[in-house]
Amino acid sequence: MTNFDFFIDGSIILIYLCLILITGIWLKKYISNVDHFLVANRGVDVYLGIASLAATEFGIATCMANAELGFKYGLKGIIPGIALGGSMLIVGVTGFCIKPLRNMAVITIPELLEKKFGKNIRWASGLVIVIGGLLNMGLFLRQAGSFLSITIGINPGYLELLMTLVLIFVGLYTVIGGMVSVIITDYIQFILMCFGFVTITGILIYQFGWFQILEQSSYYLGPKSLNLNVNSDYGFDRLLLDILVAFGSVLTWQTMISRVLAAKDSTTAKKIYMATSPYMLMRFVIPVFLGISALYYFGPDTYVGGEEILAMPNMIAQLMPVGLIGIVIASMLAADMSTNSSYLIAWSSVIYNDILEPIHKNKWSSKKGLFYNRMLICLIGLFLLLYGLWYPLSNDLWVYMQVTGTIYLSSMSVILIASCYFKNASPLGAGMSIVIGASIPVSYLLLQEFSFSSDIVKNIGPYKFGVFSFFMSGLGMSIGSLITKIKSK
Amino acid sequence: MKYPFWTFFFVVCYAWYIFVTIMVSVKGIKNIKQLIRDIEKEEH
Questions:
Q1: CATH number of A384's domain
Q2: Domain segments of chain B as ranges
Q3: Structural domain includes residue A275
Q4: Is A40 in the B-facing interface, judged by CB distances under 8 Å?
Q5: Under an 8 A CB cutoff, do A211 and B6 touch?
Q6: How many whole angstroms separate alpha carbon A83 and alpha carbon A76?
Q7: Closest Cβ opposite residue A211 in set B3, B28, B38
Q8: A3 lies in a domain?
Q9: Burial letters for A470-488: b for 16+ Cβ neighbours within 10 Å, e otherwise?
Q10: Residues 6+ away with beta carbon under 8 Å from A206
Q11: What integer pLDDT is reported at residue A213 of this predicted model?
């Protein structure tokens, strides 16, 4: 059941989509080389940087994943947001790693790593970044499709069609306008998102009552859901993984770091991080609030056994009145399109700049470079479509995103810190770190699919795997560098 | 008042969110103009 009206709400969404598409296509004339396409000519100032970074990291998948945390764990679901916002603030204030990174004027992290560890490490890190990044993004389209089919009231049988439409639309303006188009459309989407989210929050508080929502959450999930202490539901291993993933993302997540690299200078990059850090918290505060409101509305028994993620979109579909639901869906689409477009360009930039570097050696003409970047975006889109349809999600979406992110966050954060601040760090250490850091989370993803190992892996849990991956990756770097030092003596 | 911490926390978070969004929407437009001007200048 939904209040969506195809004439009124549909028109609102159509106007919004036209605005974005026209803007994206109009900006094509400003793209004449790969630097314009991938890092917007490094001309992004503080305010545009904030809008772009905040809009990028808030998509429908994030919103649904974090609303699921709220629905299942109450306000405790905000913990990863505190870790993320806090780490971004610390990195922004200190300039830790991001200052040397921006000063090097590189396009991606692997490009920086080449200067310290050589070509092989650049290539290997590019590969691991793409694998982790694409798997992480793999379920974005599916979530967007589910959200739209529920809120618009389309038969779930048309999920594939909706996923394809979202992809084609995002792909179109990203392929045409590159990073300039992504950043400027991010700006429009950022404003619309704020309007949409504040409106939903206001309506929910008006309809349910602020204290009633919290009281009911406490009643259903227990008083522990309203405090931030770790307990059996939200253990120490989970908290530790939240913190490690948060620092790792802030330092090396390509979509975040590409805003640092697109900034005018390192001071601007630091300011962007400092000012965006509270948005990283809001990225959890808003969806978690939607999640606990859905819990209030439906109770704990309507969505169980992996269906908790569907509670929030169903609540929006049933509660938002005609007119407003169109604005809310447009704002969620805005959030999703800004995320998808940035992610598409981020991973294609790593494939082109680092994995394909031995082939083009930076000697291709601007026209040829742009053509291949655009082709890569199309291929990534195709992969996302197929993977999103095929992969069965067996855990919290947020946990899936953490585990897949860890494939590269663990080693890249270790290697980046080592390359910036440890003069004894060696290519052997970097190589060991990459192999160990990637193999642990990949093993987790594979082993949970086999019947003989599924129970053991599930008993250990994704959090211990993730934390282990970070520590072993650090150990690999230390041992490898030590071996190199001993050999050189 | 019940739940004073969470009430204060949400009020501060949302107030900040709205304030910065207004700031960004006003000043971001200048940055867009500047970005486009810079690219045009580089191409000529």
A1: 1.20.1730.10
A2: 14-44
A3: yes
A4: yes
A5: no
A6: 12
A7: B3
A8: no
A9: bbbbbebbbebbeeeeeee
A10: none
A11: 95
- d(CA A451, CA A440) in angstroms, rounded, equals 19
Chain A residues touching B43 at Cβ < 8 A = 32
Say if A97 falls within a structural domain: yes
Coil, strand or helix: which one is A4? coil
Closest by Cβ to B21, choosing from A32, A191, A210: A191
Q: Output the six-digit token pair for A185.
A: 């459309």
Asked if A97 reaches chain B (Cβ–Cβ under 8 Å), the answer is no
ipTM over 0.95: no
A34 touches chain B (CB under 8 A): no
Residue of A48, A226, A282 lying closest to B17 (CB–CB):
A282
Closest CA to A463 of A235, A131, A132, A138: A235
Q: Could you read off the pLDDT of A163-188 as tens digits, one per residue?
A: 788 888 777 777 776 777 777 777 88
CB contact under 8 A, A47 and B10: no
Rounded Cα distance between A404 and A463, Å, is: 12
Q: Is A202 exposed, middle or buried (0-12, 13-18, 19+ CB in 10 A)?
A: exposed
Is the CB of B35 less than 8 angstroms away from the CB of A180? yes
| A2 located within any domain | no
Residue span of the structural domain in which A255 resides: 8-488
The two structure tokens encoding residue A298: 């439906």
Name every chain B residue with its beta carbon within 8 A of the beta carbon of A194.
17-18, 21
Q: How many domains does chain A contain in total?
A: 1
- Section A301-319 average pLDDT: 89
